[in-house]
Design brief:
Elements: H1 21-34, H2 45-49, E1 55-58, E2 73-88, E3 93-102, E4 105-112, E5 126-135, E6 141-144, E7 147-150, H3 159-162, E8 166-169, H4 178-191, H5 203-208, H6 214-222, H7 230-234, H8 239-265, H9 276-284, H10 292-306, E9 312-317, H11 323-336, E10 340-344, H12 348-361, E11 369-372, H13 378-390, E12 395-398, E13 412-418, H14 425-433, E14 439-444, H15 450-454, E15 461-465, E16 476-480, H16 485-497, E17 501-505, H17 513-531, E18 537-540, H18 546-558, E19 563-566, E20 579-584, H19 592-599, E21 610-614, H20 621-632, H21 636-647, H22 649-652, H23 672-688, H24 693-704, H25 706-711
Parallel strand pairs: 4-6, 9-14, 9-15, 10-12, 10-13, 11-12, 13-14, 16-21, 17-19, 17-20, 18-19, 20-21
Antiparallel strand pairs: 1-8, 2-3, 2-5, 3-4, 5-6, 5-7
Bound molecules: adenosine-5'-diphosphate and magnesium ion.
């Protein structure tokens, strides 16, 4: 039997008694594949019972044969008596039929051309039949082609699992189907001594939030009780669901809270002051009058920098709201205090754009600004490493190249990360490591919905630029189908005649990157030769060589090229105010937040700007509804909320490396009420329980779990 010393949920799957070896192995492989790929390990019983039903079916209402009504659908449970196959219609068809009984009567069931059934539905078999019942010739009921479920399992207890109750329906796990999984789950749960399943949450918290015991939650979530409200289960809002979701959120929110606290308690590596000299230097670099919002957020940032705790701040502002200048001013504060600043951007194009803009802004200053990207030659890279290590470079702008092995800083006091959602928590940590607990400013144009702000970003203070630079007009957005293409081209021609420029964007979808790239290239060619032979057109995509890219960008920036055909590489960072129209091909393939980012590339000048979302012919109504939001609003926050609702947080924030944990049960949108309760509890713990033994225990639990260890880096 089971080793009593192993907690049951830690048992490996092949150790579950009486599950056949082959099944156990298949099961173990499938469950393991379902565990986070980030931390592979053997699958345990705990993992198995964490594989939850996708929905529930109410099969609790069995009808007795004596209770059947002519013409009605019903399920009966019967035992097969006489079964046989015979030909009909001159031998062209075969009928398999049996008669069967329950305690109240006899019925007949038959199938056309399914003779193989005679192998399983044999005399003595217990079967569940579901179909439309009719009164037959001799007065007894019969059913044609019913759904059936064989109840004969070796131990005879199967009937308690698959029928006569609310049953769980699982998504196929590997090649194990719902019925077999249901049996294994049932058996495993009945074998587990649930009293040995430890509660990890504090008792008073459980009581305050009226959570059911953990063991009970697992049992019920798989096999809802007799009188359980099945609707709540199907909405994933039963007490069992709530309990497990609560716990899932709890550990993450606690981990993030601890990370924040850890950062705040470790001594700050910098001493920053803002005398008249610093203030004048900051003012001198301003190329324009800052908006009220820009002034306010700069004050918040400088307050942190001069304060006793290391800054850990998120600067959130819609596309085009002017985050760059704020970051530059903050960098000037650091530099004037003798510290270096590093600015990390997710793409080379964005890093270059920053470098160009910032060098321009700081042209008259004494500061040395350098650009470090992966595509530089190794000699140049070595020079830049040296400039960083000696402290000669005051502001180092770059891509991931900034966190490569050889990069050292003399005195890195300030770290800026642009478009945070492209980086994982780990990369943030990598850059921070290069300074001694430096101030960190994370910039994002994607508004962080409150639920994410509370969890993944819960360790960041937030500053928001909620005001656009003067003179901006909202971009007029239209969703159009293929039939409008000719008209759109005429419109583009008009715009170009008026001296403006145009973007045409192609999506690059990871799975079909090559094909998409081909499509973009061919389109550029067609536009050049057939549609706009009179205008110069450039093509930019991520697979181009750096100097090719540079040349194309420069041609567009200078106004020589009128049209830029691009893949999403321009999503962030291109700043050409004269471009006033953007056409987005296959718009239905983009997420809303991404569309919003793209759209932000136009409308930077004084002209009215337009964004045309071409949605092809295969527009589904869901896609259309989605895109309609883009027509309705320019409010990035509303768009982000909607996007998250439709696609889930991980997708919305872009890619797997976003550092956003995939919740197994919880859903940040659906379960926001649970999240609020969790947040309240964690705040309470962090403010009042710090010195208790219970708190120390909770910290240990967090530390032991790999996925929370990731969250608490930093
Ligand atoms: P984002 O927040 O998207 O990074 P940027 O910092 O690139 O926005 O600013 C967008 C554009 O607005 C830039 O061309 C910048 O020079 C301009 N800008 C920013 N702030 C102001 C301001 N206060 N007045 C006028 N123009 C501004
Ligand atoms: Mg920006």
């Amino acid at each position: 039997m089971l080793k009593p010393s192993t907690p049951l949920v830690e048992l490996h799957l092949h150790e579950i008694p009486r599950v056949a070896m082959k099944t156990a192995q298949k099961l173990a492989a499938a469950v393991a594949a379902n565990i986070s790929a980030a931390a592979p390990r053997d699958a345990t019983v705990g993992d198995l019972i964490h594989y939850l039903p996708m929905r529930y079916e109410d099969r609790s209402n069995l009808t007795r044969i004596s209770g059947l009504t002519h013409g009605e659908y019903a399920t009966v449970e019967v035992e097969v008596r006489v079964a046989g196959t015979y030909p009909v219609k001159g031998g062209k068809l075969r009928i398999f039929e049996f008669s069967a009984v329950d305690r109240t009567g006899q019925i007949r069931a038959f199938w056309w051309n399914q003779a193989y059934l005679q192998k399983t539905l044999i005399r003595g078999a217990r079967v569940l039949l579901y179909g439309q019942w009719k009164r037959g010739r001799r007065g007894s009921f019969e059913v044609e082609n019913p759904d059936y479920e064989l109840l004969a399992d070796e131990d005879g207890s199967a009937d308690a699992i698959h029928t006569g109750r609310r049953v769980p329906v699982y998504r196929k796990l590997g090649d194990i189907r719902t019925k077999q999984l249901r049996s294994i789950m049932h058996y495993t749960l009945s074998m587990l001594d649930m009293s040995r399943m430890k509660e990890l949450l504090p008792g008073d918290l459980i009581a305050r939030n009226t959570l059911i015991p953990r063991s009970e939650a697992y049992r019920q979530i798989h096999f809802p009780a007799e009188d359980a409200p099945i609707e709540l289960y199907n909405l994933m809002q039963s007490p069992a669901h709530r309990r497990l979701i609560f716990e899932e959120f709890f550990w993450l929110v606690l981990a993030v809270g601890l990370r924040k606290q850890g950062r705040e308690e470790s001594p700050k590596g910098t001493v920053i002051e803002t005398g008249d000299r610093v203030r004048n230097a900051v003012r001198r670099v301003l190329p324009f009058k800052p908006t009220g919002a820009q002034k306010r957020v700069l004050r918040e940032i400088v307050n942190d920098m001069t304060g006793p705790k290391p800054m850990n701040r998120l600067l959130q502002g819609d596309v085009g709201s002017g985050k760059t200048i704020v970051a530059v001013q903050a960098a000037v504060v650091a530099i004037e205090n003798g510290y270096q600043t590093a600015l990390m951007a997710p793409t080379e194009i964005l890093a270059e754009q920053h470098s160009r803009t910032i060098k321009h802004i700081l042209a008259k200053s004494p500061y040395r600004v350098e650009l470090l990207t992966g595509s530089l030659g190794s000699a140049r890279k070595r020079e830049l490493y040296e400039a960083a290590a000696s402290g000669e470079a005051d502001l180092m702008i770059g891509t991931h190249a900034l966190i490569q092995e050889g990069v050292r800083f003399h005195k890195l006091g300030f770290v800026i990360i642009d478009e945070q959602h492209r980086f994982g928590v780990l990369q943030r940590a990598e850059l921070m490591k290069r300074g001694y607990n430096p101030d960190v400013l994370v910039m994002t144009a994607t508004p962080i919905p409150r639920s994410l702000a509370m969890t993944v970003y819960g360790d960041l203070d937030v500053s928001i630029i909620d005001e656009m630079p003067p003179g901006r007009k909202p971009v007029v957005t239209k969703v159009r189908g293929e039939d409008a293409r000719a008209r759109i081209y005429r419109f583009l021609d008009q715009i170009i005649q008026q001296g403006r420029q145009v973007y045409i964007v192609y999506p690059l979808v990871e799975e079909s990157e090559k094909l998409d790239l081909l499509a973009a290239t061919q389109m550029a060619e067609r536009l050049r030769t057939e549609i706009f032979p009179q205008h110069e057109i450039v093509l930019v995509h991520g697979k181009m060589k750096q100097d090719e890219k540079d040349r194309a960008m420069e041609e567009f920036r200078s106004g020589a090229a009128k049209i830029m055909v691009a893949t999403t590489v321009i999503e962030v960072g291109v700043d050409v105010p004269n471009a006033s129209v953007m056409v987005i091909e296959h718009a239905e393939r983009f997420g809303l937040s991404q569309l919003h980012q793209l759209r932000g590339r136009v409308g930077r000048g004084d002209e009215q700007a337009y964004c045309i979302l071409l949605a092809g012919d295969k527009r589904t109504s869901e896609a259309r509804e989605r895109l309609a939001i883009m027509e309705e609003t320019n409010d990035g926050f509303r768009i982000a909320e909607k996007d998250m609702e439709l696609r889930g947080p991980g997708e919305m924030m872009g890619t797997r490396q976003s550092g956003i944990p995939a919740f197994k049960i919880g859903n940040l949108v659906r379960d926001h009420a649970v999240l609020e309760s969790v947040k309240r509890e964690v705040d309470l713990l962090l403010t009042t329980q710090q010195n208790t033994r219970e708190f120390a225990r909770l910290v240990e639990v967090v530390k032991k779990q790999p996925k929370y260890r990731l969250a608490s880096i930093g």
